[in-house]
Amino acid sequence: MAGADTYGGRTAITTAREPKADRAYPPISLATRLVILAGGPSISLATSLIQPILPEIQADLASGPEDAFLVKMLIGVMGIAMVIGAAITGFLVDRFGLKRVMSANYALYAVAGTAGLYLADLPLLLVSRFLLGMAASGAVTGSIIIINSLLPQESRATWLGYYNGVAQISSVVFNPLSGLLGEMNWHWSFAIYGIAAPFAVLAMTALQGRVPMRPEEAMARPEPLLRWFPFRFAVIGIALGVIIYIPAVYLPFLLNSLGMKSPQSISLVLTGDIIAGSIAALCFGRARRSLSELGAFRVAVAMAGFGLTIAGFATNYVSVIVGSIFFGVGVAWFLPTLMLGTAARVEPGRQGRAAGLVKSANYMGSPIAVFLAEPVARSYGASGAILAAAGLSLTLLVASITGKVFGPSDPRSPAPVKA
Question: Could you report how far apart the first and last alpha carbons of the chain are, in Å?
Answer without folding.
Answer: 17
